[in-house]
């Protein structure tokens, strides 16, 4: 399991924003992942996505890495933020955009 944890740690540490999701941003494979992508796109930030359906080790490993049972999972500057419900609550309150700005997350290329 340590190999998976180091792979996840490299992904989380090597990118400003990482979304572990089912599917891809162009083709989300569940409604929660779709909502997470829509929120990030609306925030206008650059992010890396990891399709957990393509890698069963990551799919299981991310749950113990974050101690969070569901996917999608969002990380910003190495910090676990939460799943789509938490993302939605933070987005609606303006907190997610504020976090992205405070942490100086790179903007998406237009």
Structure, briefly:
[2Fe-2S] cluster binds at residue 30. The chain is α+β, with helices and mostly antiparallel strands and 110 residues long.
- Which regions have little confidence, pLDDT < 50, spanning 5+ residues? none
The helix-and-strand class reads alpha+beta
CATH topology type: Glutaredoxin
Number of helices: 5
Strand content: 15-25%
InterPro entries: Glutaredoxin (IPR002109), GRX_PICOT-like (IPR033658), Monothiol_GRX (IPR014434), Monothiol_GRX-rel (IPR004480), Thioredoxin-like_sf (IPR036249)
Family: Belongs to the glutaredoxin family. Monothiol subfamily.
Domain Glutaredoxin: 17-81
Protein name: Glutaredoxin
Question: What's the structural blueprint in terms of helices and strands?
Answer:
Elements: H1 2-14, E1 17-21, H2 31-43, E2 48-51, H3 56-66, E3 73-76, E4 79-82, H4 84-92, H5 95-102
Parallel strand pairs: 1-2
Antiparallel strand pairs: 1-3, 3-4
Key words describing this protein structure:
four-stranded mixed sheet, Glutaredoxin, iron, iron-sulfur, alpha+beta, 4 strands, 2 iron, 2 sulfur cluster binding, 110 residues, Thioredoxin-like_sf, 5 helices
Report on the structure:
It holds the Pfam family Glutaredoxin. Residues 17-81 form the Glutaredoxin domain. One of its GO terms (molecular function) is disulfide oxidoreductase activity. InterPro entries: Glutaredoxin (IPR002109), GRX_PICOT-like (IPR033658), Monothiol_GRX (IPR014434), Monothiol_GRX-rel (IPR004480), Thioredoxin-like_sf (IPR036249). [2Fe-2S] cluster binds at residue 30. The mean pLDDT is 96. By secondary structure, the protein is α+β, with helices and mostly antiparallel strands. The chain has five helices and four strands, in the order H-E-H-E-H-E-E-H-H. The chain has a four-stranded mixed beta sheet, sandwiched between helices. The protein has helices at residues 2-14, 31-43, 56-66, 84-92, 95-102; strands at residues 17-21, 48-51, 73-76, 79-82. It has one domain (2-102): Glutaredoxin (3-Layer(aba) Sandwich). The protein is globular, with a radius of gyration of 13 Å.
């Amino acid at each position: 399991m340590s190999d998976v944890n180091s792979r996840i740690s490299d992904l989380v540490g090597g990118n400003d924003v990482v979304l572990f999701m089912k599917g891809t941003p162009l083709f989300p494979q569940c409604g929660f992942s779709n909502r997470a992508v829509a929120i990030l796109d609306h925030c206008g930030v650059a992010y890396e996505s990891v399709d957990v359906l393509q890698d069963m080790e990551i799919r299981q490993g991310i749950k113990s890495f974050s101690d969070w049972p569901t996917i999608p999972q969002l990380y910003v500057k190495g910090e676990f933020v939460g799943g789509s419900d938490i993302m939605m609550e933070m987005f609606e309150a303006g907190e997610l955009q504020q976090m992205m700005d405070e942490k100086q997350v790179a903007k998406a290329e237009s």
